């Protein structure tokens, strides 16, 4: 646990030191759970967004994108259920005065049981080797079975309490499990109560006539209210999808873990409209497809797992999370939900407008069902960044910090470095920058010894360093150094564009899906 905490601290400090993420309004001591993406962070974030958009919209003929406004008519949120049901169950510790989400406290306890079971499984794998049958071991080993049964029973009881509104039983569960405040170790808890997460604001010229509005807590509703507009103007035929990326806002009382849970964040969502009765087929399709997208980035299959929801949202008939192994354990990265026809029917009811699709093959109107994929862009950033950050011991005993970002996402694709600041080398290096910048985000660096410049680019996640030396003046070749292997090659300047393109091309990375 201490090692994980140290890793997470390194992630946070590295993000600031190398210009990826700054605390918002830092000169005024910051603002809790609000962050600014710095010069390198904004590039990485943009590249993640583009990688998602290309795979989701450009590569699917039946998916289009929109960009709906953050402000929406307030009845939108009544229809969606957010006014009445968008709550977190909160509990305070009377001694530490710290506030927590009751469901997160219980889920963290259950995850510890799961980790104990996994530890037993790993030990058995080591003992039995290739002959190990994991499924049989889990089914027959009393200790493992006990851990997993207890975990499932706890989560089911919590889900039942939250679904029925029996918050007293949720508190009773916390007390029975003897869950203590992570900060003080105290078990002196208040009652559990619900807290609505939406930010309220006003629209209008004066306080008397202003309309009460909300900052949107999700981007999905902008898609639903535009369903018919997109379907008719795009002549879309079921099944089809509408994608969107954009900011959302939640008044998270227990915001924590850096950019994992923030009050202002960005989502990448796609709502896929299908014929009623076919939603489960597409639910399974999108679960598989979205996991393949994550795996294409090469962060390690062992760092992902599916978690099927015990507690379903009011709009869903099936839901699963793709969880990622963050420095603080497995947590939700992306949600795939079968939302039924709840949203469109609710907006029909509250708006008085029909939101139906006329199926020419069946010669009838119906309200489509919806399968949603929703990934947090900030969480995706944290997943990629935290897994990429590594401390490496070299053959000579020295160490280097390297940010092994997938090259397709790296903020800067290549750094061009003149060996010395004289003899015409900077001029040639700048000519290479001028040539490459049309196709790639590149950097020029002439300060310090070339070895130190290599180390800086390693820490920034730059896949290639291109060194211009005196031989370059003779034969128009340069040294290209690869970040991960530190291998160096002598190549012609004319070959640089092709070498970099082959490594950073979205096409090549998405073809892995």
UniProtKB/TrEMBL annotation:
A GO molecular-function annotation: glycine-tRNA ligase activity
PROSITE patterns: AA_TRNA_LIGASE_II
Lineage top rank: taxon: Bacteria
SUPFAM superfamilies named in the record: Class II aaRS ABD-related (SSF52954), Class II aaRS and biotin synthetases (SSF55681)
Group of enzyme by EC: ligase
EC number: 6.1.1.14
Major subcellular location class: cytoplasm
Recorded name of the encoding gene: glyS
Protein source organism: Flavobacterium indicum (strain DSM 17447 / CIP 109464 / GPTSA100-9)
Start and end residues of each Aminoacyl-transfer RNA synthetases class-II family profile domain: 142-418
Annotated residues for binding of substrate: 101, 218, 265-269, 372-376
Compartments in which it is found: Cytoplasm
Annotated ATP binding sites: 250-252, 260-265, 332-333, 376-379
Sequence similarity: Belongs to the class-II aminoacyl-tRNA synthetase family.
Alphabetical UniProt keywords: Aminoacyl-tRNA synthetase, ATP-binding, Cytoplasm, Ligase, Nucleotide-binding, Protein biosynthesis
Quaternary structure and partners: Homodimer.
One GO CC annotation: microvesicle
Function: Catalyzes the attachment of glycine to tRNA(Gly).
Protein name: Glycine--tRNA ligase
